[in-house]
Write a structure and sequence with these properties.
The protein has about 240 residues and is of the alpha/beta class. About 35% of the residues lie in helices and about 15% in strands.
Length: about 240
């Protein structure tokens, strides 16, 4: 019998511990497939975050380093500069990247560091109780803004792609949403391009993935996909922001 589908060699046999319906597992698989297809598993180094993906080292076959909260771009920069033949990527959530790690991501992008960043934006602090994040939508409720985010009190959501696109260092920035078959294809294509740019010696690349959190959004997975498509993309429009 002909085998038509199998688990990617980029992932271990360990079972994911993410909440049912969470897109972290989907993106993990895409990364595993990409590093397998590009034949770079032995040369790849992942820098994983503090947050829901804190145990990413249990799932990736490649070398993985755990960074302090928000410091993944700094750690990835150090690895890439010391061992430039490695393919280095940081995997970060919105609380990790867009809050405590804002300085690290901005300056890594400004310097044009030859690293790839996968940015998971689910508009909440999913692991620590559903607090308001830098990307929480206007009107969206959380445990720290129970009446909904008020821009007069809490400010506005940070658009990371748009912000980093004003810098000269990035070679590629794109925002995607894997909420449909077409979205899944685009997301994997974007991730693969971010890795290929690094292989080709180009500068900083970032892919922002609009993701979900059924647990903290208090929705079913299907409802979260609809919310991403109908609400989240109005604040965070999909598309390519930089492609040099």
């Amino acid at each position: 019998m002909q085998k038509v589908f199998e688990r990617t060699k980029g992932l271990t046999d360990n079972e994911f511990t993410y909440c049912p319906g969470c897109l972290h597992s989907v993106v993990h698989r895409m990364i595993g497939e990409v590093i397998e297809e590009l034949d770079i598993i032995p040369n790849t180094v992942c820098v994983c975050p503090v947050g829901c993906a804190v145990f990413m080292y249990d799932y990736m076959v490649c070398d993985v380093i755990e960074a302090a909260h928000g410091r993944a771009p700094a750690v990835a920069t150090g690895v890439k500069r010391v061992i430039p033949d490695r393919i280095v990527f940081a995997y970060q959530g919105d609380g990790d990247l867009a809050s405590i790690g804002t300085a690290e991501i901005v300056h890594a992008a400004a310097r044009g560091e030859k690293i790839s960043v996968i940015f998971i934006n689910n508009t909440t602090y999913g692991m620590t109780g559903g607090q308001m994040a830098p990307t929480t939508l206007i009107g969206q409720k959380s445990t720290t803004c129970t009446r909904g985010r008020d821009p007069l009190v809490n400010g506005y959501p940070i658009r990371v792609c748009e912000m980093l696109a004003t810098l000269d260092g990035p070679s590629y920035i794109e925002r995607v949403a894997p909420t449909s078959p077409a979205g899944l294809v685009k997301t994997k294509k974007a991730i693969k391009k971010a890795f290929q740019n690094q292989i080709d010696g180009k500068g900083f690349a970032l892919v922002e993935v609009l993701s979900n959190c059924p647990q903290q959004w208090h929705m079913t997975p299907i409802e979260t996909f609809k919310a991403i498509d109908e609400k989240m993309t109005k604040t965070f429009p999909l598309g390519v922001f930089v492609d040099k």
